[in-house]
Amino acid sequence: MTEPAAERVGIADLQAIVHHSRDFWGERDVSALHHALHVHEFGETSVLFRDDDGSVAAYLLGFVNPERVASMSWRCARIAAVRVSHGGCTSSSSDSCAPAARSR
Questions:
Q1: Which of 24, 31, 42, 69 is the most exposed place for a label (fewest CB within 10 A)?
Q2: Distance CA 76, CA 15 (A)
Q3: DSSP letter, residue 7
Q4: How far apart are alpha carbons 45 and 64 in whole angstroms?
Q5: β-bridge pairing 89-91 and 79-82
């Protein structure tokens, strides 16, 4: 497994995340929180991490402090999730998924 690198979220990525939302959120319908605004307005700080097979393993949509992304000590301002197959963690507030992401 290679070291994950943060990538910017694009529209196609956002559509894939919504399509596979149960892999992150289970039965909760949070599709309304996954708005294109996150890509268009916060594109520089909305990030994702991919599996070795190229699928989205974790993502954050919203504001982050870019200087803190590398240390994964960021706090999210909107919505973040780690795919259940990677241990799972979901947040739709200002909570942090960094501890779960860091341990994967």
A1: 31
A2: 20
A3: E
A4: 6
A5: antiparallel
Q: What is the 3-state secondary structure (H, E, C) of 37-102?
A: HHHHCCCCCCEEEECCCCCEEEEEECCCCHHHHCCCCCCCCCEEEECHHHCCEEECCCCCCHHHHH
Residues 6+ apart with CB under 8 A from 18: 31, 34
pLDDT tens sequence across 81-92: 778 778 777 666
Nearest to 33 by CA among 67, 80, 68, 74: 80
- Tokens representing 4? 């994950």
pLDDT tens for residues 42-51?
777 788 999 8
- The sign of the CA dihedral 22, 66, 78, 87 is positive
Q: Strand 7-8 relative to strand 89-91: parallel, antiparallel, unpaired?
A: unpaired
The contacts of residue 96 (CB under 8 Å, 6+ apart) are 74, 75, 76, 80
pLDDT reported for residue 20: 92
